Amino acid sequence: QSAALAQFVAMLLRWNHVFNLTGVRGVDEIVDRHLVESLALRPFLHGATVADVGSGGGLPGVPLAITEPGRHFTLIESRAKRVRFLRQAGIELGLRNTAVAHSRAEHLRVAQPFATVLARAVAPPAELLAICRPLMAPGSILLLLTAPHLQEEFRGLAADFVLRPPPSEVPELKSSIVLLERINV
Fold this sequence. Notes:
By secondary structure, the chain is an alpha/beta fold. It is 32% helix and 21% strand.
């Protein structure tokens, strides 16, 4: 897994020059800002199916797919150049547990809801819940990496989403982890 994560970082750096996959440019920044934050979500993953909404450069979906081979990840991305990168990353990294959906998340029709939905800097809180709701069922969780000042904006935002506190063993991150559970109303 360490070798695959290193290969992914190298790929991200190489493709970033042409496809602008992330604003973070250096290897140390990518590891600190993207890899560490992506992997911090591992303890909160729920169930066998995970969707990464607005996957972009594959963050947080690809690092999690590398380290969680028993789960299936759907990387949802609307921009063709990023879809090409995600498909190539899946091939080069041998990720048999990923699929790439070239679509906007709100237009994607799924046969079965996802157990976990991931998102990072996709949309403002209320809009994000509307985008993710069709991908989820009661009992599904929505895991977000967001700016610390936005964390409380999710509390009580929608009757069918309940903010759950993340366990106390979360490492120090630049982003905040927000965990919402979809419930029956």
